[in-house]
Design goal:
CATH superfamily of the largest domain in chain A: Response regulator
CATH class of the largest domain in chain A: Alpha Beta
Largest sheet of chain A: 5 strands, parallel
CATH topology of the largest domain in chain A: Rossmann fold
Shape of chain A: elongated
Largest sheet of chain B: 5 strands, mixed
Strand content of chain A: 15-25%
Helix content of chain A: 40-55%
CATH topology of the largest domain in chain B: Heat Shock Protein 90
Mean pLDDT of chain A: 84
Structural class of chain B: alpha+beta
Number of helices of chain A: 10
Number of strands of chain A: 12
Largest interface: A-B, 26 and 25 residues
Number of domains of chain A: 2
Mean pLDDT of chain B: 81
Oligomer: heterodimer
Strand content of chain B: 5-15%
CATH class of the largest domain in chain B: Alpha Beta
Distance between the termini of chain B: 56 Å
CATH architecture of the largest domain in chain B: 2-Layer Sandwich
Radius of gyration of chain B: 40 Å
Number of strands of chain B: 9
Structural class of chain A: alpha/beta
Radius of gyration of chain A: 18 Å
Helix content of chain B: 55-70%
Strand order of the largest sheet of chain B: 4-6-7-9-8
Shape of chain B: elongated
Number of domains of chain B: 3
Strand order of the largest sheet of chain A: 2-1-3-4-5
CATH superfamily of the largest domain in chain B: Histidine kinase-like ATPase, C-terminal domain
CATH architecture of the largest domain in chain A: 3-Layer(aba) Sandwich
Chain lengths: 252, 356
Amino acid sequence: MAGGAGAERVSTAQASPVRTLVVEDDPHLAAGLAENLRAEGYHVDTASDGRLGLEWLRENSCELVVLDVMLPHMDGFTLCRTLRAAGNNTPVLFLTARGDPQDRVLGLEAGGDDYLAKPFHLEEFLLRVRAILRRWEWYRKASATPQSAVLRFGGNEVDFRAFRARSWNGAAQELTEKEAMILKVLAERPGEIVSREDLLERVWGYDVFPSTRTVDNFILRLRKRFERDPANPQHFLTVWGVGYRFLIEGES
Amino acid sequence: MKTTRVFQITALLLVIVSVIQVGWWVYDQHDYSTQKLRDARAGDAREVAAAQTLLDAGIPAAQVQGLLPAVTLTNGHATLSAIVDAALVEERNRRTNQYTWESGFFLLALALCIGVIWRALRAETQILQEQDSFLALVSHQFKTPLASLQLSLETMAKRPLSPEQSRTLIARMLADLTRMESMVSRILDSVRLERGRVDLKSEPVDLAAAVGRVVTQFEERARQEHIELTTDVPRGLAVLADSLAVDVVVRNLLENALASVAAVSGGSVTFAARAANGDVELSVRDSGVGFRADDGARLFKKFSRLHPGGGSSYYGTGLGLFIVRLTGGRVSAESRGVGQGAQFVLSWPAAPGQSV
């Protein structure tokens, strides 16, 4: 499923307008969001509850989901988690009336790309939509050619379009979108030092996460997936106080 | 939570210290009494010995008895009077018993005090928790219409709009304001009624007029949402109730019915009334989402919001039907199930002197 969705995205991105889905149960808010997204040139579909949203996403593909958290039938977090578990990596922008940091972390852990608390400013909403789409645009372009779509290092093989990988011990890996993006940023500049801030900016955009610690957690996950000895990394090296360096050949 | 924990620990310590203290008192008193008994017996023994010495010295028994009345003299032998010794033991037991009872009573009173404070504290904590969840809910309820208002206004500020588009946005904003206004009045209603600040009067209220007043306010909204709103309340039917409370109850039931019908994109809401056994019944029947039979009891709970799918709907405050319960009068709800509509029946005593 992930492979199919990924390939489709690449082929349709250039020609037709960007497709978005707004899942929001409040009719006024849903209409207002849809009108504004259309005015910006996006194609918009709407769903009024979580179940309808999930059904729509199972049958159609789009490049961005604007997802309310409190929804009838199925809340936004559950919807997003279900989507990710099924290998669907469509970017998600959460909208919610609960704006506390705990909730924000919960949303991003559920696989969301960004999080906006109600009430919000129209400009900020559009800015975040553009930022998410820009990051994905970059990722798609950077994985467009057969060479750039696949990364091989230390016996591991990563397919950026399918979000799949085979690690050195032959284990099949399903990558999350963030893991794939981090890997992409690192693989674009092998051997160079990439700062944590740089990774945050490229993968998440501005102030989504409160700390750069999140980046460290993702690097740990990548090491677990691809390093023969995660405690003694050969490919994902920490540069103390700065960030990380990725080596294709491995250190030795 | 924290206060109750502190109280639990303090109360436990207090009980332990008190039990030890009381135990010590009882032991101390018993010990003291036993000591006194021993002293008294030693004194008595000395008297018996003195009496025996006098007897042995040949002093007549009658004279010895006169000197030492507590001693019994039989056949030239001196012994202590059984009555005197029994009195001493009795005195000791009485003291010990008295202290045991008093201590028991003291501990019981202490336990009662702790119980009373504990109950008060628990009630307080529950109120605080309710207020917290109330605040969270209220802020959440307001944020959606606020977000919608802000979005509409910023859209107007940002984009050139046709007159028709502007009208749509203005209508949307007005509706958002109405939603917020209705939330405010419901919240105020519930707070006032719950704290008993409203003295509910008992006066004759013309039911047809009351229903008419409320229905007029909602006709426009019903038309917009494709809901057929009909009333079949006979003129001259009067109930004994508080007229403001009747308005609030009818309004809340109507709003509930409208929301339930709007959720299935249109249908009908019908008011009907009849007199029965000295009561007057007002029924509100809707063709809306209905509810599951086991959810019937939850309907009238504070903050309880049901959704046809079984989850919670995020419309409404969850206060409307709760308020209905607070206003006196009786209310019942029935539905044949999800998607089958619902009927709410209110009943009040009929006002005297009307032709039924």
